[in-house]
Amino acid sequence: MKKPKVFGAFYKMDDKIMRTQTYLQWGTSKKSIGAVIMSNPGSSQLKSTQEWNSFLTSNQDRIVGELSIDPTMKQLNRVINGIYINKEDFEGRLYIYNLFPLRNPNVDFSRKEFSLIEDKILKENELIIEECFSQGHPWFLLAWGCNHPQRLKSSMKQWNKALTKYNAVIFGKRGRTEWDYYHPSPPLQQAKDVYCEDIQLIYQSMFKQSKKTKDKLKVSKTFYIPSKGPEDWKDLLVNGEKQFKTGYSAKTLDIVGAHKMIFLLM
């Protein structure tokens, strides 16, 4: 299994630590393999403890460097290696984005902090989202977890609007509600294994390797609907916009009716 390095940037805002510009790097290529959107950075920190502690205790506003690889990043590495299992020489970057960039290992506390500075974080998100869609990511794995409080919906809607605007290819393992997408790294090892297998199957159903161009992915004529499909295709649109509950790419809406539809029920 190929092992990546992880890089990212931290900055301070209102005495809080934010993380941005984070990616897993395989090899030397700067090409985007894809992107994942999760909840928040958790306990992420620099690999160098000395540099990290110096940043925390100094007046330094921003720092960029190599990060420690946490369990979630290890799981994402498994997912990507599984996707590229027949291509040991693959290279590139998997970018990590968050509903909110606030670093805090305590999820409940971080959500409370989010509610206190929600307006500022949403403004930060605007800059992050603008930078995100300048990278040309071929796809987005939605993986921000389940059972989020109502106050986080503002950030989810912010990302939903951007994903729809840029006609992004999206997929993920759906939970029970339209806003739920399972986190990549559940506590139990068996659940981690199942997640990897499920995501790899979903990915394979959505993409196929182009036989003509090396390393080029081509979207398959497959619709991924991770729960029961709608009775009528008009339900896929609300005011002309794709909703998260459909769980598939906005790009596919342009070819509805032109190809046979395959439903992958989860």
Automatic annotation (TrEMBL):
InterPro entries: DUF1643 (IPR012441)
Domain of life, source organism: Bacteria
The protein, known as: DUF1643 domain-containing protein
Organism: Priestia megaterium Q3
